[in-house]
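Example record

One chain of 211 residues, shown exactly as stored in the release files.
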Amino acid sequence: MITTAGSTFEHIFNLLNDSQTYYLVLVDDEGNYAHFNEYFLEKYQAYYKNPGTRSALAALHPDDHGVAYQTNMMCRQHPHQSFQVTLRKLNGRGGYTITQWDFKANLTLEGNISGIIGMGYDITDFESRQDHIKFLTSTLRDVAYKQSHVIRRPLANIMGLVEILEDSEMDEGVKVVVQMLKQSCVELSEEFNSFLIKGSQEKPLGYEEVE
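Predicted structure tokens for this chain:
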């Protein structure tokens, strides 16, 4: 196990090891955890409650093994830089959590690399909200399209037919009916505009303006 004394990790250990918000891990040169804080162990105890299991890949989503390895290599090639990465962690219940991490090489006082430090936190709720917002936005755009295309288009067609009737010869009784029909269309259009959900600046295909 890599000791914390005399390295970059010592200062971070003193700051975050007791955190209930941030994960703190130290990955050794063999890809095993030399250390993880209690908060990390609490969240992923299904994989690390047995002291013999220390592989950093044990709770990592298989599809993220490649990016984790690349990040490890980047930390070693550029030991004075930190690298951000989003990783999915298996939760032991058939699903996974989404976590955001900063990784950086652990440098000893002599300037040697002694493992990789990782500081992470859970962003699953945030990502879920983002997905929900995208869903709502898509739904509203669909509603806006239908309002314009499915409702306003037939209304515009009715107005066009009314104008044709106005230019036709008819008795006074029919003219009164046509004028009433036109007025109803105008009122419907105005009422419709008052609650129209605005989509994008672009008008959907088939959109026709009603005067």
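Notes: The chain is about 45% helix and 20% strand.
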